[in-house]
Structure formats: C-alpha cells, structure tokens
Design goal:
alpha/beta, Aminotransferase, transferase, EC 2.6.1.-, AspAT/PAT-like, 2 domains, five-stranded mixed beta sheet, about 15% strand, Aspartate Aminotransferase, domain 1, 14 helices, globular
Length: about 400
C-alpha cells in the first residue's frame, strides 16, 4: 500500500532541518557531555504556581472533554490580553484555543488555502514552516529576506514571488520577532507587507509566539493596522512567554467567521485541549506582565553576553538581535557552510548549535545559537565557538 503524497512530500524529498539536533541528542543519550544550544527550550521548568493550578484543576475533576474552541474563561482572558496589547477590539469569538503554536500554523493554512494553492513564507524561517504548509496541502514558496534589509521581507520580493508562483497564491506567513534572525518588523515594514496582501488578496498569517521577547523597538501585530484585521490570522502561544513548551497551549486570533470554521476543523482534528491544562494556562496569563518579564529577562541578559563577546573579535558577525531567544551568527569568514561549521563545533568542542541552512538558503553560512543555558555556561560555550571560528579563518588565510 502506498502512503498519500500529502504525507510523503512534507519534506519535499529533503531533510527537515533537524539532523544535527538529533545527532546531539544521540550523543547526550550515549553519555557524551554536550552543551546543547539548539532548540528554544527554557533552562527553567514551568513555574510551580502554574503546575499547582494544573494539579488542582485535574484533581478537581476537569479531566473530561473540554469545549473544543477553548473554555469560556480562557478564550475571554486571551481576548482581553490581545485587545490590550494590540488596541484592536477582540472578543472570545475571535479566539480559538489550539494545541500549541505549531498546530495553529497548520490550522491557519488549512483555513486559508485550497489544495494546490501557493502559500508564501519568509526565508529565513522556522524549520517547520515549509513542511507545515505542504502538510496543509499548499505549495510552499519562499520569499527571501536579505541581510542588507535586516532580514525584513521587501514588498517587491513578495510581489515577484506571487507573479512567479504559476497559480493562485492565497497566503503569506510572517514571523516577528523572527526565529532565527531576531528581526522585529516595524510599522513601516508591516504597512508595506499589508499593502501587498490587500492588493493581491492574500491572507496574512502572523506567527507571534515571541511577542514578549522584544529587545529593540516594539512588537506590532499586523492585525492592528487599518484594513488588515479581516484578512489576518494571528498565532500565539504560552510556550515561550510562560515557559510552558510541553503544555501545548496556543491560539489563533481571527475574524469571527474564520474562527467558527476553524472550530469545525478542531472538532475533526484534535477535539480540543484537556481542561486542566487550559485552567493552568488561564492561571499563567493572570500572573500578568511582571511574570512574563521575569521569563524573558534571562534572554535579554544573555543577548548582551553574546553581543559583548562577538564585538571583541573580528571573524564572526552577529545579526542584530532585536528579539527572540537566539543569536544568529555569520560564520562565512571561516570558509565553511553553517552545516559544516556546526558539525565541526559539535565534534571538536561538544557544542550543539543549529546550522543556518536548517532555516533556509537566506541563512546559509550562519549558525543559530539558542540562549538557553545559564549565563556562565553560555559565555564559555560562545567563547569556544568564537575561538574555533578564529582558528578556521586563520587556516583559511586571506
């Protein structure tokens, strides 16, 4: 029996970008000590207050089927939060609770695209993006965001990708603050992107899971711009802002009629989230902005460590880290690809980072460092990374 093309073509015959991560995990499992700076996983666990709320809810009996679209209380709290942050009137009818941001991205594209439609995404991108779009039945088409533009996509490049798509284009996926580059899209950039979406009649799907980790500038959701609320689907999550990665709580914000249709998809796909986890998420949101600032603080601090170390040498260049929990480092002066450098770093120094090529061709010759170990350990690992880069660049010569 043959499997469907939908499932076998998720990775388009290539790697899913996680090969080095898996290699590092195998080394760790075999007893080899590795400093793992690969994925965006906090070095703290979920706050005990949130776990206590989860336990109380479970032991209190909230273990049966919960409302598929999310509990009334959680949808209302998310709507209140989004309205306060964006300035856009938001009601529970604009909110669908989903099992994490990843599920939200898949479901948003299922809502936006017919099978075979083209769906645009920005390169560099989070490693799952093209596979997610293909899994939803769309043709995934990259729009390059170049270093000279701060890794922010340009309207002309989006238009060119639409013109070259060879068929209907239904959506554009953006991510600000961006993983892996750390770019934060300002109002002018979002206005240009939004104008293209209006002119070419695209859904604008905005991945905002890092909205609480902005180090320069300010986060702005495209939904807050005139004319874009009715064509925007915004994906959010508890994972990064509340250190709840394993709880798998996310949401989609969109027009009420879109949320009704997405609830139909959820009914036939996930049948909702466990009620006790939703109660824990509600408790976490009610801890407020002070708590979220505490979760974000280590990454702001470690960003400064990375910037200081990179500034003290001349081989590796750091892409401006405006937001998110990573440092994207340009290692092209070594003469190696991001993949080759990451392999050498793992083999020689037992430090695991993600190759830039895992995030698209626009990030080739870079590596992404997750700022996810305690400060002294991170500083030591970065110093060893920079020393290796210097050694390789010296061997390469002028």
């Amino acid at each position: 029996m043959e499997l469907s093309h939908r499932i076998t073509r998720i990775n388009d015959g290539g790697s899913d970008g996680w090969d080095l991560f898996r290699k590092a995990r195998r080394m760790i499992a075999s007893g080899v000590p590795v400093v793992e700076l690969t994925i965006g996983e906090h070095d703290i666990r979920t706050d005990p207050r949130i776990l206590d709320a989860m336990d109380r809810a479970a032991r209190g009996g909230h273990t049966g089927y919960a409302a598929v679209a999310g509990t009334d209380a959680l949808r209302a709290e998310i709507a209140h939060r989004v309205a306060a942050q964006s300035g856009v009137a938001t009601t529970p009818e604009n909110v669908l609770v989903v099992p994490g941001g990843q599920a939200g991205l898949f479901m948003a594209h299922m809502a936006a695209c017919e099978p075979g439609d083209a769906a645009l995404y920005v390169d560099p991108y989070y490693a799952t993006y093209p596979g997610t779009l293909r899994a939803a039945g769309a043709r995934a088409i990259a729009v390059a965001a170049r270093p000279e533009h701060g890794f922010v996509p340009q309207a002309g490049d989006i238009e060119a990708a639409i013109d070259a798509a060879g068929g209907p284009v239904r959506s554009l996926l953006i991510n600000s603050p961006n993983n892996p580059t750390g770019a934060v899209y300002d109002r002018a950039a979002l206005e240009r992107i939004g104008a293209v979406c209006e002119r070419r009649d695209l859904w604008l799907i905005s991945d905002e899971v890092y909205e609480g980790q902005v180090w320069e500038g300010a986060h702005l959701s495209p939904r807050a711009l005139p004319g874009l609320a009715q064509r925007s689907l915004v994906v959010g999550s508890m994972s990064k802002g509340h250190a709840m990665t394993g709880s798998r709580v996310g949401w989609i914000i969109g027009p009420a009629e879109a949320i009704v249709a997405l609830e139909d998809l959820a009914t036939n796909m996930t049948y909702g989230l466990p009620g006790f986890i939703q109660d824990a998420a509600l408790h976490a949101l009610r801890l407020g902005p002070v708590f979220e600032a505490e979760i974000a603080a280590p990454f702001r601090r470690r960003r400064e460590i990375a910037r200081r170390l990179v500034a003290a040498q001349e081989v590796v260049r750091a892409v401006p880290m405006q937001g998110a929990m990573y440092a994207l480092l340009d290692i092209r002066a070594t003469g190696l690809s991001g993949e080759a450098f990451a392999e050498a770093l793992l083999e020689r120094e037992r430090i695991a980072v993600m190759p830039g090529e895992s995030f698209g061709q626009a990030a080739r010759g870079h590596v992404r460092v997750a700022l996810t170990v305690e400060d002294a350990r991170l500083e030591a690992a970065l110093a060893r990374l920079l020393a290796l880069a210097g050694e390789l660049a010296e061997k390469r010569g002028p």
